[in-house]
Please model this.
Amino acid sequence: MTARTISRTTARRQVVSKKRKGRRPLSWGFFLVIVSFAFVMFGMVLARTALDTGAFQMAELERKIDEAYLRNQNLALQVAQLESPERIGELAEQMGMVFPNDRDTLIVQGFVEQDGPMVSTGIFALGERP
Model:
């Protein structure tokens, strides 16, 4: 009977030892592959986020450019309306401005009228009036 008892314990020991031998720990190479893959995926997520952020900023700038262009067009239209000769004529009449019927000529000493522009006949000292 002792022989049977020994053989059972030996069989159990062998089975336990076989299970341990069949299971191998993970190798460093496999671990490095997994970690590298995780870093690559994280880098891809960061790159995609940076690209999307840049696209959002560019869309915002394009929207602001469009708004500025429309504002510029509206301001150009307002300038054209305000510079209109008809509008200026109406405002001048409301202020009492009229075209003169006769022209009065002013003669300024020190200047002589020629065929071209008015020219000075002399040099005046600083602070001296003609």
